[in-house]
Write a sequence for this structure.
């Protein structure tokens, strides 16, 4: 997105407004870093799209390799000549300053997997392979960034959530359903753009091409899955609160201890913001210019990107 397009389109894309709804209560420096990281993610996603459309293998895999390297040592890539790499390194460097080295390593491990998933999607798109529904769902959970968006609930809360809670079935279920809702709702809103662009990566497209559904039937099925995420989240949320009560009671000093209060506040913050993903995602997709495809000259090409062909 060149400077003139930033001036013309950036505000109506609503990227930073979205993050403000996802991470309510975060300290100013945390929400600023997450907002910048999220904006970078959208720009990176657009770069991926354009590189796949034009078959720019060399350019994409060069960028992918550089991101892996920058992720492991962001402080040494702040002046990288490629703006996408430098911006990525700068945001990760800031995010790494909020919690422990263990959290930093977890975040990096999760994002390495996300870059790998983007590589897989790139190959699928340039070779015109539409993944089967189960394959797509697993891939989408990575390309949507499920794991890192959940990781970022912790600096928002101001502390790490104990592994006994964070890795528990109820926490993971609540996290998965809030993120699946977001990914599938995004697929619903992106379907016109991605059909126009002959994309292979959308739950609706996988349902059409592998399950034999019509467009109308695929929309109904994706919508059913979206609605089911809400129901399943509420079940997981209740189970998590029950698990939390038992965890707090077992701490030294019991539920009234300072540590128990701190853990309880962190988990409540995380659950509150998981809930916020539902309403924020819904709002974003109806307010952001990213999805107003009917107003574009070319429904397959966003007007806010510069789309140059060639394997540079």
């Amino acid at each position: 997105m060149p400077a003139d397009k930033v001036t013309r389109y950036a505000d109506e894309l609503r990227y930073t407004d979205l993050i403000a709804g996802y991470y309510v209560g975060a300290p100013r420096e945390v929400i600023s870093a997450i907002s910048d990281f999220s904006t970078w993610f959208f720009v990176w996603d657009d770069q991926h799209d354009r590189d796949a459309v034009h078959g720019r293998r060399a350019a994409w895999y060069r960028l992918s390799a550089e991101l892996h390297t920058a992720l492991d040592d962001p402080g040494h890539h702040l002046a990288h000549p490629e703006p996408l790499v430098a911006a990525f390194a700068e945001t990760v460097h800031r995010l790494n300053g909020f919690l422990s080295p263990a959290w930093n390593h977890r975040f990096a491990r999760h994002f390495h997997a996300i870059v790998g998933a983007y590589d897989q999607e790139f190959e699928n798109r340039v070779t015109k392979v539409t993944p089967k529904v189960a394959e797509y769902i697993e891939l989408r959970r990575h390309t949507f960034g499920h794991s890192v968006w959940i990781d970022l609930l912790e600096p928002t809360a101001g502390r790490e959530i104990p592994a006994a809670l964070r890795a528990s079935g109820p926490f993971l279920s609540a996290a998965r359903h809030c993120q699946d809702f977001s990914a599938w709702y995004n697929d619903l809103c992106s379907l016109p753009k991605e059909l126009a662009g002959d994309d292979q990566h959308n739950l609706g497209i996988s349902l059409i091409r592998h399950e034999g559904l019509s467009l109308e039937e695929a929309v109904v099925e994706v919508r059913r899955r979206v609605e089911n995420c809400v129901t399943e989240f509420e079940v997981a949320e209740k189970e998590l609160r029950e698990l939390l009560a038992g965890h707090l009671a077992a701490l030294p000093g019991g539920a009234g201890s300072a540590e128990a209060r701190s853990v309880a506040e962190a988990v409540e913050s995380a659950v509150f913001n998981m809930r916020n993903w539902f309403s924020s995602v819904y709002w974003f997709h109806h307010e952001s210019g990213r999805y107003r495809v009917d107003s574009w000259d070319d429904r397959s090409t966003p007007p806010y990107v510069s789309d140059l062909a060639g394997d540079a």
